[in-house]
Predict the structure of UPF0335 protein F4U95_03605.
Amino acid sequence: MSEKNVAADQLRLMIERVERLEEEKKGIGDDIKDVYLEAKATGYDPKIMKTIVRLRKMQPHDRQEMEAILQTYLAALGME
């Protein structure tokens, strides 16, 4: 088999792999939407839940720094 055929086969396999992963990603995205819809139907606020998920991904130090800056800005705007 020539190098050209090997390269084309590798490329095709990688593209097929990406396509499968994209489908899985779409499925996971749909599952996440379903969870937020269920939460909303139960009375929870999906927007706040998304914020909590984002905050939980952060390192504690980064989260504390962000919260401190937010408090400083709120105080400066008289919103506290």
